[in-house]
Amino acid sequence: PHTRYPIPVPSPSAAQMTARPDPLGLAAAATTALTWGLVGTMVRLLPSLTPAQLVAGRLLFALAAALPALGVPAARTQLAHALRTPAAWTLAALLGGYYLLAVAAFRLAPVADVALLLATAPLCALGLRRLSGAPASPAERSAALVALAGVALTLVPSIEAALAGAHDAMRRRLAGDALALGAAGASAAYALRFRTAQQRAAETPAPSPFGVAVLTFALGSAVLAAGAALRGAPVVGVDRLDARGLALLAALGILSTLVPTLTFAIAARRLPPVLTAAAQLLVPPVAALAAALALGERPSVWLVPGGALVAVGLFRLLGAAR
Fold first, then answer.
1. Are 9 and 276 in contact (CB under 8 A)?
2. For helices 121-131 and 167-199, angle between their N-to-C axes, nearest 10 degrees
3. How many other C-beta atoms lie within 10 A of the C-beta of residue 78?
4. 204-221: per-residue pLDDT in tens?
5. pTM of the prediction?
6. Which of 100, 98, 55, 92 is nearest to 236 (CA)?
7. Confidence of residue 288 (pLDDT cuts 50, 70, 90)
């Protein structure tokens, strides 16, 4: 439940809980929030590509940038272990599903709304735990209700569009919201599955975040390439991109996929969980600001109170989980 995006958070050490915040950890957390917050805007600035082509290009660029790291023996060992571990393949499938659902959501609904709904992964994790029979504390239940109230407020513009007769706009927005919640669910399932693997480390060592990430990049690229071949369509559609579009796609894969994968792992290892959680909750405001500046997208008036309730609820939920 500590995971905002599909990257596992290592358990904090006693030193992390008592020491002053580490400057490198703070820098890594800020970099993570900034780079994740740019994803929605980059997706919207590449309208000539389908969501599948965007994800394929994103994963291919991330994979190409990660390959040089395999020159380090430790990185090769981590990838080899992930390839041999069934849990890593499950995690890679969940992570790939997250990427596809999130990109599709950004295409249909406002960037700020999608980023906020993606932030509800801890809430989805609580729901999945309840479905599996795990109890929820009163503090967790009250925090979840606050966050759900915020989610409901973010859906008000869709309801207003329906009442105004703008059914096409309503359907697109609701579809984007639903895809964003699906992506949050995939993120939550990833976090819970990773935690289970870590708890069973005495039997089988858990795969590393780096090993799972590289496996995801390779597996996702291969699956999307096979699907494109069956449809007779280009995998990425590079011919539809000019130099600016190609640079944006590369930035999406490297700057907003590979880089935050690494910086979030650094932040989680060097900062107390409360600071890691706070950094994750900065992603929606960063996304809203980027969309306003680059796309001229104005957030709805309901986003501020809804986002505040979601942030308060998630922060309380993360505190209750600890």
1. yes
2. 70
3. 23
4. 888 888 899 999 999 999
5. 0.85
6. 55
7. very high
Let me know: does 289 contact 115? Beta carbons within 8 Å.
no
**Measured between alpha carbons, how far is 178 from 103 in angstroms, rounded to an integer?**
12
- What is the distance between the alpha carbons of residues 22 and 15, in angstroms, rounded to a whole number? 11
CB 67 within 8 A of CB 76: no
- Beta-carbon contacts of 51 under 8 Å, excluding residues fewer than 6 positions away, are 100, 103, 104, 107
The Cα–Cα gap between 197 and 190 comes to: 11
Length of the chain: 322
How far apart (Å, rounded) are the C-alpha atoms in residues 210 and 215?
Answer: 9
pLDDT tens digits for range 252-285: 999 999 998 888 878 777 777 666 666 777 888 9
- The structure tokens listed for 289 are 């600001």
